[in-house]
Amino acid sequence: MTEDIYRILYCSRNSLSGSIEQQKTEIAKILAKSRANNPARGITGALMFNSGFFAQVLEGPLEQVERTFETIQRDMRHDDISVLQCGNVPQRDFPEWSMAYAKADSGETESLADLNLAELLENQSTAAAEISNLLRSLVVQDDEYTCV
Ligand SMILES: Cc1cc2nc3c(=O)[nH]c(=O)nc-3n(C[C@H](O)[C@H](O)[C@H](O)COP(=O)(O)O)c2cc1C
After folding, report:
1. Residue nearest to atom 17 of ligand 1 (CA)
2. Does residue 42 lie within any of the structural domains?
3. How many domains does the chain have?
4. Where residue 66 sits, what CATH number does that domain have?
5. How far is residue 132 CA from its own chain's centroid?
6. Per-residue pLDDT of the chain (148 residues; tens, 9 = 90+)
7. Would 11 disulfide with which of 5, 52, 55, 69, CB 3.0-4.6 Å?
8. Cβ of 16 below 6 Å from ligand 1
9. Nearest to 82 by CA among 135, 7, 6, 12
10. Residue 43: which domain range?
11. Is 94 within the bounds of a domain?
C-alpha cells in the first residue's frame, strides 16, 4: 500500500530578537528539535529563514503533520502564520530530510531573501510555487546543513 502524504507549506513572520548570530543559534535549536522529533512521526520537510520571515514545508501522515503544525503555530518565535498550500501530494519533496535547512541569505538568492511577507501574501499561489521551488533548489545546493 502506498503511503498517503499530506503536505503543508506556510510562511510566518520571524519574531526572533537579538543579533543575526543569536538568531542563527535559535534556528539551530529549532532544527535540532525538528530532527529529533520528526523522524518518529514520519515527517520530512525543509525550513527557510531570513530576517523577515520563515517558510516551512512539512510532509508526512496527515495526523502527524497536523499535530506538529499545531505545536509550531503556538511557538512564540514566529507569528502571523499563513498557510500557502496544504493537501495530499503524490510524493514527498524532501524524502531524505527530517528537516532540511535552506539558507536564504547567500549571494544569488539575495533578492528572494528580501521578499517581504506582505508581498508574498498578496498572491498566495504564486508565493507557494515560488517558495516551493526556492526551498527545493536551496536544499539541493546546500549540503552543509541538509543531512538528516
Ligand atoms: C519556524 C519553526 C519551525 C519548527 N519546526 C518544527 C518541526 O518541524 N518539528 C518539531 O518537532 N518542532 C518544530 N518547531 C518547534 C516547535 O514549535 C516546538 O518548540 C517543539 O516541537 C517542541 O518539542 P518538544 O515537545 O519535544 O519539546 C518549529 C518551530 C519554529 C518556530
Report:
1. 72
2. yes
3. 1
4. 3.30.70.100
5. 9
6. 567 899 999 999 989 988 888 888 999 999 999 999 999 999 999 998 877 789 999 999 999 999 999 999 999 999 999 999 999 999 999 999 999 888 765 444 444 455 666 666 677 777 788 788 888 877 765 555 444 4
7. 55
8. no
9. 12
10. 5-141
11. yes
The x, y and z cell numbers of residue 137, run together, are 533548489
Task: Report if residue 146 sits inside a domain.
Answer: no
Grid coordinates representing 123?
498572491
Q: Is the CB of 75 under 6 A from ligand 1?
A: yes
C-alpha cell at 142: 546546500
Is residue 148 one of the residues assigned to a domain?
Answer: no
Element (H, E) at 147: none
Pocket residue to mutate for ligand 1, from 11, 24, 25, 34, most atoms within 8 A of Cβ:
34
